[in-house]
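Problem 12. The chain below contains 224 residues. Write out its predicted structure in token notation.
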Amino acid sequence: MLRRAIDKGVSKERLARAFNVNLSTINSRINLLHGICPKAVELLQDHKFTPDVTRHLRKMKAARQIEAVELMIAANMITAAHADALLKATPPEQRTDYKPPQPEQPKGDPLEQIVKLERAMSQVQEKYKHAEENYGSELLNLVVAKGYLKKLMENEAVRSYVARHAFEILEQFELVLNTVSMEEAVEQAEREEGPSGSESVAWTHPKHDDSRAASDPGMDGQLG
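Solution.
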């Protein structure tokens, strides 16, 4: 009725004075059916309901609005609570406030990731180059330190004193003494493999052992 009166040229202020209400009430009544599909409005026009009913209906798509209004009319209960219950039972794809999940966006610009990777690789190369350049001097310092600490720890009086008064320092000294450089590790491996390797050579070449061949008559026959 208000909408028809306004469409005929009656001002909102005049309607507010006529119904003895403030202008905001007139505006809310005019916008009561805003966002409601024409079919649902037609079904509601002969029924009384509060603005909260249409507030829930606006969150439904047109087909679901019509269905919800028909269900409320059939139950003779056009209330905000009933409309809210129907809204909650509405499938997501039939709601106007439903936002489908967005596809996962790639994390960052691929070109930017490549630049970061190249920068990180450059930093690793610089650190490697620095370590390579300083390896010789650091190895020399380690050898000197190990030699000094070895002599120091061989002194039982010094070792006993450090063990009693600063055991954590003794642990650090022993850590240095047990440190093996790359060259030492290679030499140690060669020493460990040396005896077995020489035995293997002697076994695979028995004819080179002249003393053994001379003392064993059977060997003379085989060599002959």
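Discussion. The two ends are 133 Å apart (CA to CA). Students who got a different answer should revisit the alignment rule from Section 12.3.
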